[in-house]
Each structure stands twice: as C-alpha cells, then as structure tokens.
C-alpha cells in the first residue's frame, strides 16, 4: 500500500465530519475564485525561461525512477464550436487539415522518446481536444501506430486508455474501431439534455445519440463510460437539470463529470455568443448543485470530489478508498505515480520534478518541431517547497483529508512549524465547519468537500504573487 494510503482510510474523526449539514449562506460566502489544482504550482507559475533543454534533462532524469508513463494527446479540431467552450481548438470540417498535424505529432514523439527508456509501460493514454473523433478511422489507426512505434503501447488488462467522444459525430463503427485500437474507456460529452439549453450553446444533441453509443459501448465491453455534464448554462433551472439528471441516471454511466460553467467572455471568444441574461442566477446554480449531489448520491454514486462522481465499483472510487487517487491535467485519475507526457498544441507534461507546456498557437507549435526541437515554450522546475506542497494539495484534493504529521516525517520537517501559516489560514474554515482537525490530521466535512479548492489554497505558496482574478469561481 502506498505511503499516503492511510489518509483516505477510516479515522476517528470521520463521524464528526459527516454530521455537518448543507448551508447555502456559508457556501456562498466561500464561493470565491481559485485554482482547480490539476497541478501545483498551477500553470500561471510557468515561465518562459524554462526551455526545451530543461524538458529533455527532466525526461532523462525520469528514467531512473522507472515510473510507468501516461500519454496525453491533444487533438485540437472541432467541426462545430460549442459556445461554452474554453478549450484550445480549431473549427473546421476538413479532416485533411489533420494530416500535417499528425506528422508534427509524430516528430514530437520521436524527439521525446529519444530521451526515454521506452521499456517503461504506458499505463495511461488519453486523447482529448478539441474533438479526437474528428479524425477519420484511418487517421486514428495511424496515430495509434505512431504512438506504439515510439513508446510501445500496452495490452495489459489494467491499462487505462481513454478518448473523449462527441456523440453527434461518432457511431457504432467508431466504437468498434476504437476498441480494436486498444481503447477501453470512453468519455462522452453531453452537457445537458434539454433542447432549449442545447440550442443556446450551439450543441443540439438528442438523447438517442448518446443512448445508442452507450448501449453499443456496453455491448462491446468497454470497461468504464464517463458522461460530461455542465451546470450554469443558459436557461438551466434546478428542475430542468433534475430532468437531465433523471435521464442520465437511467443511462447508468460508471462515471460522471458535472462541471461548473465559468462565463469568461473576455478570455474565450465563443462565450460572447451566450447572452449573460439567460444564465441562471448564483442562487439557482447553487440549487442545481445541491440537487445534483443529492440525486446522484441517492442513485448510488460516490462523490469523489469537486465535479467527479463514480459508482462504488469503478476504479476511480476504489482508488480513493485505497488512497491512490491522483489529480492531473485531465482531472482525477486512478493510476497514481505516472510520468505524464503531453503531446500536441497546448499540451502540458508532468515529468520528474518539472512541468513543461507546448505553445497554445498551432503555428508556434509547428515552427518549433519543423526546426527539429521540442515545442516546450514554458514550464517550471519545482523546488523542495513546491514538491512538498504539491503532495499536500494533491492528497487533500484526492482524499479530502491530509495527515501533515506523515508529510513531516516523509520530508523530515517539523510540519507544525512549516505549515503554520496554512494552519492559521484554515482556522476560520475550521470554525465555520468546513473541516475537522485533530492534531495535524485535517479532514474536510461534506461542505468542505464542495469547497476543497478553498481549503487547498491555504497551502498555496504561489497564489499571493498571482492574485486569483484569472481563476474561475469555485462553484
């Protein structure tokens, strides 16, 4: 069992934790802006003094650990823009435009794999976007072949090979093909099943499209299906979203991601097509969230944390029970302790003690690879303080609890002194019932689980230099 596993197991203060009740006024008071902590330090701390050479050295250092690999491939193309979208994407219907991009991806793979011991197993593979199913079946085969040639893909039954799917442009043949390529987990974008909401976000998607794909995926034996929903979209109400949830519960996916829509039209141009007056009020959003948690919990789902729910038998819920859950740029992951290699425009890698990010502009990404160098444009080398706080924040985000005494022993520090500022910051949250503390063991209450980003911010040593104006609201 991993050294941090005990943080997620039963603890004497658990009974006290479960006793707290939902409090609208309290939740609203803490619903400020803050990081999602898919990494610590967050991407706002990355800087352009970090170079491709720094990334190369990190790749070579990582071989000593013999950690398994996780590969993320960013496919930026979409046939149609959804108005809520904040992803890095290119709108086009011409699949031929993907060919030069696939060639650049292969060049990036070659340059990366030169510095890696490719005998290390690839436990995780994730294709995101954009819309990965924008690619033709032949292009998908080509991309898998290139990944296998450069890194050596796995056929192990416990591998986690996932792809994000738009049900409007995938069919049963797509699923059969994906299965033949080795994918065993699917994530389907749904967002909302209400026709008025769908029209307002430019994503008309009848339930039958999703249902047909899910039926076929179950028949083919895909291990885990995830559905993405979004709350806070135009024309949503507590009742309308409850109707969507009722239909989704009938479909019985293994996992659900229920994201909070962050309306930032100054940063994301497609969002300017959304009429702000049509968005639900803060009170309505909170009511939607409460109903979501109640309905999914009653239906047997475990609230993993933040926006993730899973059935108790799913690997995500099992990983949380055993203290091996991890947080990465794709959200929560059941495969801990992998070195993550990000491939493609805007992709971020987490390797050894560094983060490295590729350019967000396609032309800059292409230019770097055409010059025969890795496309790293910025990143960060973590110091000891960063590494310690990353562990604290990640365990808190994953386990909803943290044993600072165990952290102190592992890092050979006096945790009481070292984290004194953070503990001081958390006093008000403790008084308000967001967490229960016994010595150096801190556990979030049900309300604290909702506001776990706020609790994690107490340990963030970079936040004071960034301000939080560029982060989304917590709820």
Automatic annotation (TrEMBL):
Keywords: 4Fe-4S, Cytoplasm, Iron, Iron-sulfur, Metal-binding, Oxidoreductase, Porphyrin biosynthesis, S-adenosyl-L-methionine
Any one Gene Ontology molecular-function term assigned to this protein's record: metal ion binding
Keyword Metal-binding attached: yes
Annotated residues for binding of S-adenosyl-L-methionine 2: 84-86, 130-131, 191, 203, 228, 262
Pathway membership: Porphyrin-containing compound metabolism; protoporphyrin-IX biosynthesis; protoporphyrinogen-IX from coproporphyrinogen-III (AdoMet route): step 1/1
Domain Radical SAM core positions: 63-299
Cofactor stoichiometry and binding remark: Binds 1 [4Fe-4S] cluster. The cluster is coordinated with 3 cysteines and an exchangeable S-adenosyl-L-methionine.
Name of the protein described by the UniProt record: Coproporphyrinogen-III oxidase
SUPFAM superfamilies for this protein: Radical SAM enzymes (SSF102114)
InterPro entries: Aldolase_TIM, Coprogen_oxidase_HemN, Coproporphyrinogen-III_oxidase, Elp3/MiaA/NifB-like_rSAM, HemN_C, rSAM, rSAM_sf
Pfam families assigned to the protein according to its UniProt record, in alphabetical order: HemN_C, Radical_SAM
Listed EC numbers: 1.3.98.3
Binding site for S-adenosyl-L-methionine 1: 72, 129, 164, 348
Organism: Vreelandella aquamarina
Catalytic activities: coproporphyrinogen III + 2 S-adenosyl-L-methionine = protoporphyrinogen IX + 2 5'-deoxyadenosine + 2 L-methionine + 2 CO2
One cellular component term from this protein's GO annotations in UniProt: cytoplasm
Annotated residues for binding of [4Fe-4S] cluster: 78, 82, 85
Protein origin, superkingdom: Bacteria
Cofactor(s) demanded: [4Fe-4S] cluster
PANTHER family in UniProt: COPROPORPHYRINIGEN III OXIDASE (PTHR13932), OXYGEN-INDEPENDENT COPROPORPHYRINOGEN III OXIDASE (PTHR13932:SF6)
